[in-house]
Amino acid sequence: MAIVAREYRKMSRASRQKGQRGEREVCKILAEKLGGEFKRNLMQTAEGGFDVLGLPGWSIECKRYAVDKPADIKRFWLQACEQSEPGEQPVLILKQDR
Hints:
Elements: H1 2-10, H2 13-34, E1 39-40, H3 44-47, E2 52-53, E3 58-65, H4 70-83, E4 89-96
Parallel strand pairs: 3-4
Antiparallel strand pairs: 1-2
């Protein structure tokens, strides 16, 4: 998980903000469709872990990218699997930029 935190620090401010907007968008959609309260995991950089909190048993990882190449998707899926806790189902939500 320390590797993920180091990668995060290398991202530009614009990239981080784009990712944060994507996470908030996912939280809003989940709340509308499933009800309940969903929040961004604000400690994901410091402590590791997945992006969205509020759905027990599921580990949600959100990604926004300009172009989703098969190698990127595989890397994102592996990250989602590594960050999920035992007994949780990993979920990867991708949104390609326009």
